[in-house]
Structures are given as structure tokens and as C-alpha cells.
Amino acid sequence: MGAKTIVLVAVQLVESLEPDVVVLDLRLPGLGGLEVAREVGLRSPRTRVVILSVHIDDISVMNALRNGAAGYIPKTASADELIRAIRHVAAGGHYLSPPICERVIQSYVRDGDETPRDAYETLTARERQVMHLVVEGYTSREAASRLSIGRRTVEMHRANLMHKLSLRNQAELIRYALRRGVLSLEGGSCAE
User: Fold this and answer.
1) CATH class of 3-111
2) Distance CA 49, CA 67 (A)
3) pTM tops 0.70, yes or no
4) Residue 31 carries which DSSP code?
5) Which class is domain 119-180?
6) How far, in Å, are 99, 130, 156 from residue 72 at the CA level?
7) pLDDT in tens, 44-95
């Protein structure tokens, strides 16, 4: 079973079991934690998401919150803090680890609401699907077949996402996907 399949099965389990809280790593193999958080929000709106990540920069935190996360804590947090975050989020609140909370407040005070929007957030769901397939090595024809759309439609979505992300070629798209956590290099390979 490939990493992407495992993630999709996990989302389906969340949908069927409807847990109160799901704890996600920001960088899941095959499909990023933000994608999973978004899917959980769509398929199981009562389930709250806590992100556990090594990335505590402002953009990662804000993207997680914009994509439905109700909590965000660093992987260096203690077990007590993780439990506190889960309980707080399960009760309907939001939780940011104290160091993250301080950074977010400083960033907001400094920048206000002028934080530039992440270009990835401007992609449509279909553009994201095409991006995932393209970076996994599927040709336009293969992606079209998997998505049950025309090859030219895939190429149009690909051109749109490349424009939105200001990327010029396949190599830049793959580097972007690696940095963004959309693609991981498990076992030395880009494929599942």
C-alpha cells in the first residue's frame, strides 16, 4: 500500500469514525498534512485537527490555521502539552503552543493583516490534484485517465498552477513540491 493510499484510508477512517480530535504531522508522505486537515474538515466537520510539526515558522502556522487546524504545537513539546492541546481543542477552542503564540502575536502586531497569502492557497482542488499526479511522475494522458478528464484539461490545469506558483518547468515544480511537503523522498525515490 502506497503512502498516498494510506493517507486516503486514514481520511476515510476519520470520516467513518468521526473522532473528536486528530493529531497530524504537517509533512505526511504522499499528501501533506494540510491537505489531510482540509479533507478532514470537508468530510468530518466535527473532527478538530491538531498539527504537530517541526516547522514553527509563521507561514506554516498560518497555513495550518487557514486550512482548518484548531491547534498547532512543535514536535519538541512535552506529552503534557500535547494532552493539554488535545483537551482544549476537543472542548471547542484553539491552541497554539506558547512559543508559537508569541511569534504569531508579534507577527500580527508587526505586519497586521498584510501577510502575503501563500500562492499554494490560490490553487483550486483540481489544480492540486493535477500537481500531485504530475510531481509523482504521471504524464498528462495518465493524469487525465486517473482524474477522468481530458488530457488538454490536465494541461490547462498544469499551466494555471505553474503560473500561480511562478514556476517555469518540471524541475522547479518538483523542488516546490518537496519544500511544500506535497512530495517526499522516502527510500530515495520520488514515487510511491
Assistant:
1) alpha beta
2) 10
3) no
4) S
5) mainly alpha
6) 11, 28, 35
7) 888 999 999 888 887 888 888 888 899 999 999 999 999 999 999 999 999 9
